[in-house]
Write the structure tokens for this entry.
Amino acid sequence: MPEATEQIERQSTATADFLPIHGTDHIEFYVGNAKQAAYFYRASMGFHLVAYCGPETGTRDRVSYVLEQNKIRFVLTTPLGPSGEIADHVYRHGDGVKSIALRLDDARSAWEATTARGARSTQAPVALEDENGKAQLASIAIYGDTVHTFVERREYKGPFLPGFAAVPGPDRVARPTGLLHIDHAVGNVGWGQMNTWVEFYERVMGFRMFKHFDDQDISTEYSALMSKVMANGNEKIRFPINEPAEGRKKSQIEEYLDFYGGPGVQHIAMATHDIIGSVTRLREQGVEFLIVPTTYYERLADRVGKIDEPINELAELGILVDRDDEGYMLQIFTKPVEDRPTVFYEIIQRKGSRSFGKGNFKALFEAIEREQARRGNL
Ligand code: FE2
């Protein structure tokens, strides 16, 4: 489901200096079987395997596969034994996001500044070094068992980080799908916790509220969630925070919390310049998307006006469209990519709009209700 958000006037409530974040360095997942998960991300999602660490490279307790597609970098990590923090994470959460890692010039300063402002340290600054150079890492806790890792890599020239070996290309398993960069990464937090984390991002991280809506918004009648989007100074890094709300049925956020065993990353949105091409390839390669009722498209032209893409092609693929005063955007959501109904992906193409698809909430759920009405069940 789209995280329901709406652009209203910007609210600048930041009280801390901005962290000078260059971008998302990588997202690390703790998974039960990284070797097989890596195959899914390569053959289905279109990533290339670029680096590896494990027993062969001198790491005894885990393996990690580093996957890239354009500017997106995922790391899949699996423990090699039953004890320790990684095994515990997999046991409790299933496969899920451990770290949203942010690239900065100075990891120690970022760690010192954020912990001084109240962040809980999960990893004090540590220097790593190998023949490819030096890197510095530090981590702070965010919601649930998730962390932000600060990555400083100016003096490192290797494939990922010290200790990792390059995997020589070409990757014959990889089938690229045109995914370019991370647009946003969404966290689900518990009942009444959204504002706690909004305040964390403001006070500790120096982020600002980008757009928000609350439970007065009509969309929550359908979606049963509340969401606020936090963004860094240049607005390139955007973290919507969702919490469950009372709705007609059990909140989708509550379902996530039940199955994930607490707060965590709900979905990661990846941008493309050609959503029809990307989604066509992803579907051909086995990625499963949410099904949109055909009724959604009956009123699409009235709702969004003229768009470049043929509506019949969007309908065939189930791609949603939303417009605001800056332009429009196209988006689609995968089904969860684990057996637990937890983490999923969004594919997004922006054509001027900087919003998050709020208009699709109502249209999507109304479309579902129209189908119910046709069956005489409403
Ligand atoms: Fe999203």
In short: The longest strand covers residues 21-30. Residues 358-374 form the longest helix (17 residues). The chain has two domains: 14-166, 177-375. DSSP finds eleven helices and 17 strands in the chain.
